Structures are given as structure tokens and as C-alpha cells.
């Protein structure tokens, strides 16, 4: 493992996130070289000790590893297409957001040019980068991650997910699905309680208690999914579906949006129609696993 703060790093792309990444490496003591299409965005970093490379090629030469953080994957190809750069032997770590298919395609693109490639995803806002709150996910060859794990640790809490380059992107969107689902459920309850004069701050601790309690069910429910067996140990799906109907009725009666409860009920009803009413809630994985375009 390369664990010296002397390890030189290169950052390509100095938007809000790229500047935060470069700043965290500088703070940790790494010789940091930067490049950005609009070079003025490097001014503050240069004042803090970064070196501004005149070309992408110079930037790549300077670092043992190169982190790329630009708007999207088309920007990555445009950037390297517009700059005739030799990638052979370089390690590229692409923290640009995108899909799993884009990550796998970029891995093939890098491999064809003789580069080593890790894909990654940043689950943090720029101000959290450099703290433990910033989760930075990586996928691709394990050996390349392990060689640079300590250096990457300057950015936050880094993790390795597996050899499939698409995994970081998949975990990224899975995390977002979790985040938005919890927030939307909380907003649904908040909207209902506000009709009775209960403000959001009063309801929030109760909502937090429920969310924490439900989160504790996940490992046991995951076992049911992985074994493909869903005995109703706590409650049956048809019991949950009746409570969903109650949620729809209450939302409608107090005049708040019932779209989300109706969606939940629609999915449960389909599983019940398929004969799963007597099984436990995670049997719905079969509904989530189906492609539906309606
Ligand atoms: P940003 O502030 O809009 O910066 C975009 C960067 O991409 C700039 O450096 C820009 O260069 C560069 N760029 C765009 N098109 C280019 C092209 N054709 N050729 C060369 N460079 C190009 O965006 P950001 O917030 O830093 O986000 C960067 C990535 O991090 C995105 O994929 C984003 O989803 C991800 N991310 C961001 C956050 C966040 O909170 N900001 C959180 C997680 C993940 P110029 O300066 O020359 O325009």
C-alpha cells in the first residue's frame, strides 16, 4: 500500500467538487497538480500550493494517480479527445457521476489505451470532502485500489466494492433511492400532521425513531431475499396492504397528496394477485425486479 503523504496526485476538473478534492489532497500534504479547461478556477488552489499543469498531458505526468471529476462521461471523452494524451501505464480514477454502463464502457476505453482504471462515486457535498462524512466509493481492479487506498483516504471514508467497474455507480443510485424514499415518506407524514397543527419539528423525532427501527430490519429481510423464502414472521403482506389502504384514505380525507401511498398499494396488490399475500413484505422484491414501462 502506498501510504505516504508524499504521493503526488493529479486532479483533472476543477468544478465545485474537483476543487474540494484537490483542496483535501493539499491539506493532507500531497504534492497536488491540477488541470481545468477554465484555468482561472485553479487560482485559489495554486495560492494554497497546487501546481497548475499547462496541459492535460503534463498533469498526467505529474501524479502517481489521476483523479478525474468533470460534469459527465461525454465531458470526459471530449476532454481527452481534445487533448492528444498518452494514457499508457497511467492510473485513472474517475469520480464523475454516471451510469454503471458508462463506467464499464469507460473502463474498456481506458484499457484500450493501456491505462489502469478505477471508477468511483462521491456521496457527499463538496464541503464534506476531506472529512469522514464523505463516502467515496470505488470499483475496478482491487490491487489498484489497495495500492492507493491510503492516499485516497485524504478525501473521506473510502471503500472498495468489487472488480465490476459498474458497482460504484449502482451503489450510488441505490443510496439515492434510499435517501429519497426515506425523505418522501417523512414528507408524506409531515403533510398529514400539519393538517392537525403539528409542525414538522414536532413530528421529526418520531419519524426518526421509525426510520431507525425499520433500518434495523434490513439484515433479516435481506436474508429472506437472498434465500428466496419469505415466511410471515412479523406480518403478512395482505395485512400491510390493508394499512396502506388506510394511509390512502387518511391522506385523501385530510386533503394531502396520496400519489405515493397509491403507488405502494399498487405494487403490494400486484404481489398479492400473484399469490404472495400470505408472505412477508420483502417478497415485493419480485415486483421491484421486473421491468415495467407503464
Ligand atoms: P461543476 O462545478 O459544474 O464542474 C464541472 C467540471 O467539469 C468543470 O471543471 C468543467 O470545466 C468540467 N467540464 C465540463 N465539460 C467539460 C468538457 N467538455 N471538457 C473539459 N472539462 C469539462 O460540477 P461539480 O459539482 O464539480 O461536479 C463534478 C462531478 O461530481 C459531477 O459528475 C457531479 O455529479 C459529481 N458530484 C458532485 C457533487 C456536488 O455536490 N457538487 C456531489 C457528488 C458528485 P470548466 O470549469 O472549464 O467549465
CATH class of the largest domain: Alpha Beta
* Helix content estimate: 40-55%
The CATH topology of the largest domain comes to Rossmann fold
Bound molecules: NADP nicotinamide-adenine-dinucleotide phosphate
Tell me the strand order in the biggest sheet: 3-2-1-4-5-6-7-8
Radius of gyration: 24 Å
Helix count equals 12
What pattern of helices and strands is seen along the backbone?
Answer: EHEHEHEHEHEEHEHHHHHH
How many independent structural domains? 2
Uncertain regions spanning at least 5 consecutive residues: none
Short précis:
The protein is of the alpha/beta class and 294 residues long. It is 51% helix and 12% strand.
Keywords for this entry:
N-(1-d-carboxylethyl)-l-norvaline Dehydrogenase, domain 2; 8 strands; 12 helices; 2 domains; binds NADP nicotinamide-adenine-dinucleotide phosphate; alpha/beta; elongated; 8-stranded mixed beta sheet; Rossmann fold; 294 residues
Description:
- 51% of the residues lie in helices and 12% in strands.
- It has 294 residues and is of the alpha/beta class.
- The protein has an 8-stranded mixed β-sheet with strand order 3-2-1-4-5-6-7-8, with helices on both faces.
- The protein is elongated.
- The model has no long low-confidence stretch (mean pLDDT 95).
- The structure holds NADP nicotinamide-adenine-dinucleotide phosphate.
- NADP nicotinamide-adenine-dinucleotide phosphate is lined by residues 13-18, 36-38, 41, 69-72, 75, 78-79, 96-97, 122, 125-126.
Amino acid at each position: 500500500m502506498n501510504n505516504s503523504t508524499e504521493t503526488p496526485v493529479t486532479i483533472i476538473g476543477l468544478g465545485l467538487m474537483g476543487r474540494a478534492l484537490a483542496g483535501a489532497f493539499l491539506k493532507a500534504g500531497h504534492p497536488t497538480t491540477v488541470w481545468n479547461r477554465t484555468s482561472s478556477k485553479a487560482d485559489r488552489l495554486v495560492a494554497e500550493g497546487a501546481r497548475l499543469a499547462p496541459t492535460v498531458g503534463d498533469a498526467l505526468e505529474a501524479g502517481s494517480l489521476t483523479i478525474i471529476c468533470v460534469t459527465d462521461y461525454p465531458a470526459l471523452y471530449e476532454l481527452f479527445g481534445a487533448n492528444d494524451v498518452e494514457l499508457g501505464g497511467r492510473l485513472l480514477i474517475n469520480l464523475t457521476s454516471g451510469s454503471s454502463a458508462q463506467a464499464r464502457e469507460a473502463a474498456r476505453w481506458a484499457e484500450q489505451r493501456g491505462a489502469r482504471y478505477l471508477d468511483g462515486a462521491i456521496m457527499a457535498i463538496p464541503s464534506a470532502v476531506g472529512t469522514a462524512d464523505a463516502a467515496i466509493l470505488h470499483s475496478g481492479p482491487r490491487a489498484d485500489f489497495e495500492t492507493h487506498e491510503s492516499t485516497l483516504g485524504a478525501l473521506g471514508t473510502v471503500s472498495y466494492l468489487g472488480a465490476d467497474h459498474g458497482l460504484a455507480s449502482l451503489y450510488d443510485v441505490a443510496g439515492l433511492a434510499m435517501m429519497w424514499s426515506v425523505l418522501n415518506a417523512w414528507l408524506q407524514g409531515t403533510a398529514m400532521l400539519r393538517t392537525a397543527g403539528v409542525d414538522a419539528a414536532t413530528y421529526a423525532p418520531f419519524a426518526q425513531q421509525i426510520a431507525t427501527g425499520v433500518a434495523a430490519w434490513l439484515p433479516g429481510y435481506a436474508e429472506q431475499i437472498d434465500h428466496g423464502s419469505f415466511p410471515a414472521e412479523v406480518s403478512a403482506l395482505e395485512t400491510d396492504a390493508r394499512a396502506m389502504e388506510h394511509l390512502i384514505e387518511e391522506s385523501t380525507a385530510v386533503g394531502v397528496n396520496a400519489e405515493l401511498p397509491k403507488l405502494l398499494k399498487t405494487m403490494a396488490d400486484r404481489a398479492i394477485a400473484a399469490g404472495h399475500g400470505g408472505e412477508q413484505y420483502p417478497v415485493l422484491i419480485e415486483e421491484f425486479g421486473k421491468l415495467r414501462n407503464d
